[in-house]
Amino acid sequence: MSKSILVTGGTKGIGWAIVERFAKEGFDIFTCARSEQDLKSLQGHLEERHPGIKVLAMAADLSKKEEVFRFSEAVKSESIPDVLVNNTGIFLPGSLHDEPDGNFEFIMHTNLFSAYHLTRAFAKEMIQRRSGHIFSMGSIAGLTAYPNGGSYAVSKWAMLGMTKSFREELKPHGIKVTSILAGATFTDSWAGAGIPEERFMKSTDVAESVWGAYNLSPQTVVEELIVRPQLGDI
């Protein structure tokens, strides 16, 4: 029976690289994003390059709880994924003391609450099955506060704490939980920054980190994995 992976925000950057890495290994793919056009492009790419796998690519805005539930029910109608990657995220620069009203709530709902609701949506079935691997895509910003990081940094600190809690709760049930704490990775969010591409990590390197952590023996888990550019943080 084929295995499957659910990756939120799978049409770009790190999410796209993770989807591609696991599709290469024959995993069925469940993913979502806001853009219908990006989803169609991804699905077409996967079906052409990996014709043996199943693909569910669904439009959903995971900053809204009802959209998280709608997406999770669509996935459940197919199967319970073997791997869940909470990758959806947004970065809006600003300082906590003067950022636009509403930024904090929007970022927290997108970056943190989506992962909370989606993990809970599949936890019961994973516990019953006594298997599964949950990844949260955190950030170096969840370890070190920095100017202009604002609500994004808060969301990533909270994500790390939540992931640690899920790790403690789920480890007796055979479910692995891993936090990937990635530094600056070359994605669309850095477009126009004027920084040479070679200064960044590659999204494929982060995907390889997820693949490597997934492939350890059942008695071993990577709890936290810090991945940084060779020359340090940007």
TrEMBL record:
The keyword Metal-binding does not apply. InterPro entries: NAD(P)-bd_dom_sf, Sc_DH/Rdtase_CS, SDR_fam. SUPFAM superfamilies: NAD(P)-binding Rossmann-fold domains. Pfam families: adh_short. PROSITE patterns: ADH_SHORT. CDD domains: SDR_c. Keywords: Oxidoreductase. Belongs to the short-chain dehydrogenases/reductases (SDR) family. This is SDR family oxidoreductase.
